[in-house]
């Protein structure tokens, strides 16, 4: 395994990055300490591709910024840290930091393939990031994160039937910046620096950098080393060059990410049959230890992504024209010990628990190229008739290689499967709205979507023994082409009854393009899924009381999805196959924010969500014959090992979630002492389409605390994440043994920041 640098080794890096000056990054901390009062302030969002107050938008949208965003990103965290921080959002991954899977209102996809399609789209500065390895791009120098729930297929388009997670970076235009650095448990280090400059001729520049590091902290007791796994170096940078001249604004962006570290750590037999409680390496009756594993396989992960973009904007007076051009490129390698243990039952040494056979795999993306182009025209008026029209083009070329190894440290694979995917899509969209003088506002939009995906897969190398794969022969190339097209639309009505109370209702039709799956390391055939269509209905209220010191927003919703694309994974044959099922869901989401006194703020949000498969013809295989799990679903008559999933809550979809924050600060000298805490709770989740006792988790409770002193320029704080040291499995593998992977450990440390 590679050697991760110690704190001493990286000290010069910290010194260089912090040499200029230091700054507090949060938007909320731009407010001078002496001017802090008891109001919440207006929250501006771009959920409809224009700046509007959060309270005026007829969409269920939540925002993360300021103190909350600072707190949850202070410990070397990745995008998964956003899970549960707003109602109905979950994020998990079986690849760790590099391949997040998003779920909104229960709609998502547990597919682990590197061409997996998701119904939640990630939009980074108005550019959709489609491939999973792009969606983990780090969180740094952000103005805000917006989570838009429900179909967003009119203005944002591609594959958004569940919603979008939208990142907006800080743009050039000002001179100044910030730097912050933190150091914590396991050598967890984070250094974030952003600096900008602007002149009187309209030129401006902003450079943003992020360095994250963690030492190896998980002890593989099968080796003689003290610490073997869990470390990483994650580096990202963004350079933006901007020119403004009257009505014209042009911005060139370049971004890069370099990741080198551990893949996620799979753990064998973390539950005993008949229970979902975590157990230690000694099995039933032993205490689970997050920092210990017993493995014989290799583990590494490397990811490089690059981006170049050009944004052009011209204000013609009545309308503004926009052009957004973006190119992303990436390559990826990841290998892990999939059985999560050591040896096998037929070998002299094996464990923990029963390991039927050894399983090691590697997945590579030798090349990913994504190009997008959008042209949009938007009216500039704030009253009367407003409109937007535009066109969108998407092109992706993707190569994937998958490897299976006969032995845990083999360099030569026993099976190789290769895939090539070419995707092309375009859309034409428009939206109109009209604001009446009596407080009513009506809005409607539509988008024509057209998608084509060409796919070829083969297994040219096959040297495994016949009892593993039969017949033991290479698989010749197989091809599939899928096409989809649909007119998506939305319509909404908003009524501002008073300055304090707004009602809204929205209906929307969402769409996900058809998909192809072709991991042939075990399977001999590729699978396809038809296009997915969702009808969503929601209504809610948005309120602001007591001079904007209290806000309360409430939403109720119902959705009906036809041909929901899901992936049945694992089972005896360890085959991942796409399938279409119907699903329905309904729920309630609520958010309360308050600033009842000077220096005191708190928030609480929650969701009740029922998202169930509604399809009497939906059947999947249960856990593999070598995995003694307890399936709770009825078996299909005459088909042992095949179970009905009709009525099941969708995987990774808790029925209840709750999140909250509380902050207080009081003046001391030229600054203020402050404390801020944030919490997240989710109820039970299942990991797979079928329900089982073992492959589930009853609940998760994670919290954080940040205490410090800040002035208008400096901030020094101590922090702790996962303060209760909650130990929860977040996913599993069911074809070899009761394998799972778990949440992040408790991290504590100190942070200093300065702005200049």
TrEMBL record:
Domain TonB-dependent receptor plug as annotated: residue spans: 54-164
Any one Gene Ontology cellular component term annotated for this protein: cell outer membrane
Signal peptide positions on this chain: 1-23
SUPFAM superfamilies tied to this protein: Porins
Coiled-coil residue windows: none
Sequence ranges assigned to domain TonB-dependent receptor-like beta-barrel in this UniProt record: 286-681
Keywords annotated in UniProt: Cell outer membrane, Ion transport, Iron, Iron transport, Membrane, Receptor, Signal, TonB box, Transmembrane, Transmembrane beta strand, Transport
Main location: membrane
GO biological process annotation, one example: iron ion transport
Keyword Isomerase: no
Name under which the protein is recorded: TonB-dependent receptor
Family according to the record: Belongs to the TonB-dependent receptor family.
Membrane as UniProt keyword: yes
Alphabetical list of InterPro entries matching this protein: Beta-barrel_TonB, Beta-barrel_TonB_sf, Plug_dom, TonB-dep_rcpt-like
Topology of the protein relative to the lipid bilayer: Multi-pass membrane protein
Protein's cellular compartments: Cell outer membrane
């Amino acid at each position: 395994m590679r050697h991760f640098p110690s704190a001493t080794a990286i000290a010069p890096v910290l010194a260089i990055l912090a040499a200029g000056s230091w700054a507090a990054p949060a938007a909320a901390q731009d407010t001078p300490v002496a001017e802090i009062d008891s109001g919440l302030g207006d929250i501006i969002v771009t959920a409809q591709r224009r700046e509007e107050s959060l309270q005026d938008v007829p969409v269920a949208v939540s925002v993360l910024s300021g103190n909350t965003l600072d707190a949850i990103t202070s410990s070397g965290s990745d995008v998964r840290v956003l899970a549960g921080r707003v109602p109905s959002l979950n994020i998990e991954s079986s690849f760790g930091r590099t391949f997040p899977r998003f779920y909104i209102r229960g709609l998502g996809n547990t597919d682990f393939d590197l061409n997996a399609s998701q119904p939640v789209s990630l939009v980074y500065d108005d550019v959709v990031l489609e491939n999973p390895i792009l969606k983990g791009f780090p969180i740094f120098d952000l103005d805000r994160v917006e989570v838009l729930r429900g179909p967003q297929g009119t203005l944002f388009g591609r594959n958004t039937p569940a919603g979008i997670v939208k990142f907006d970076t800080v743009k050039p235009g000002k001179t100044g910046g910030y730097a912050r650095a933190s150091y914590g448990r396991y050598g967890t280090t984070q250094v974030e620096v952003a600096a900008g400059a602007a002149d009187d001729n309209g030129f401006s520049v902003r450079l943003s950098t992020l360095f994250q590091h963690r030492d190896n902290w998980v002890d593989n007791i099968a080796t003689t080393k003290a610490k073997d796994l869990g470390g990483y170096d994650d580096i990202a940078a963004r350079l933006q060059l901007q020119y403004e001249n009257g009505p014209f604004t042009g911005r060139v962006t370049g971004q890069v990410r370099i990741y080198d570290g551990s893949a996620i750590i799979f753990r064998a037999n973390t539950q005993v049959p008949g229970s979902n409680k975590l157990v230690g390496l000694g099995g039933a009756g032993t205490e689970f230890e997050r920092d210990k594993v017993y493995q014989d396989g290799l583990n590494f992960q490397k990811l490089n992504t690059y981006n170049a973009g050009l944004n052009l904007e011209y204000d013609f007076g009545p309308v503004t024209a926009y052009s957004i051009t973006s190119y992303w490129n990436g390559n990826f390698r990841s290998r892990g010990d999939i059985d999560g243990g050591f040896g096998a039952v037929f070998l002299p040494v094996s464990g923990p628990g029963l390991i039927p056979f050894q399983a090691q795999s590697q997945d590579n993306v030798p090349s990913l190229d994504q190009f997008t182009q959008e042209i949009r025209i938007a009216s500039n008026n704030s009253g009367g008739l407003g409109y937007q029209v535009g066109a969108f083009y998407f092109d992706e070329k993707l190569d994937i290689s998958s490897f299976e190894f006969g032995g845990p440290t083999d360099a030569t694979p026993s099976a190789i499967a290769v895939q090539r995917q070419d995707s092309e899509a375009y859309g034409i969209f428009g939206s109109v709205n009209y604001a009446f003088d009596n407080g009513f506002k009506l809005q409607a939009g539509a988008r024509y979507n057209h998608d084509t995906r060409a796919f070829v897969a083969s297994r040219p190398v096959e040297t495994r023994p016949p009892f593993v794969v039969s017949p033991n022969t290479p698989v010749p190339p197989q091809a599939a082409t899928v096409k989809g097209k649909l007119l998506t639309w939305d319509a909404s009505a908003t009524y501002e009854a008073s300055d304090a109370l707004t009602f809204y209702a929205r209906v929307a039709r969402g769409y996900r393009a058809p998909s192809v799956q072709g991991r042939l390391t075990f399977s001999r055939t590729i699978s396809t899924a038809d296009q997915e269509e969702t009808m969503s209905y929601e209504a809610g209220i948005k309120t602001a009381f007591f001079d904007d010191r209290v806000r309360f927003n409430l939403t109720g919703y119902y959705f009906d999805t036809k041909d929901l694309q899901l992936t049945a994974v694992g089972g005896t044959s360890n085959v991942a196959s796409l399938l279409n099922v119907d699903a329905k869901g309904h729920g309630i989401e609520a958010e309360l924010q308050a600033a009842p006194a000077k220096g005191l703020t708190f928030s609480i949000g929650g969701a009740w969500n029922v998202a169930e498969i509604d399809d009497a013809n939906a059947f999947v295989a249960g856990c593999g014959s070598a995995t003694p799990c307890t399936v709770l679903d009825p078996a299909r008559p005459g088909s042992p090992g095949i179970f009905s999933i009709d009525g099941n809550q969708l995987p990774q979809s808790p029925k209840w979630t709750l999140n909250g924050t509380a902050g207080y600060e009081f003046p001391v000298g030229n600054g203020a002492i402050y404390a801020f805490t944030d919490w997240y709770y989710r109820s039970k989740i299942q990991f797979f389409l079928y329900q089982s006792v073992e492959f589930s988790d009853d609940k998760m409770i994670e919290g954080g605390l940040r205490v410090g002193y800040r002035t208008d320029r400096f901030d020094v704080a101590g922090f702790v994440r996962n303060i209760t040291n909650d130990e929860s499995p977040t996913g599993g593998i069911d074809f070899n043994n009761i394998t799972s992977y778990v949440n992040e450990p408790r991290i504590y440390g100190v942070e200093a920041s300065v702005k200049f």
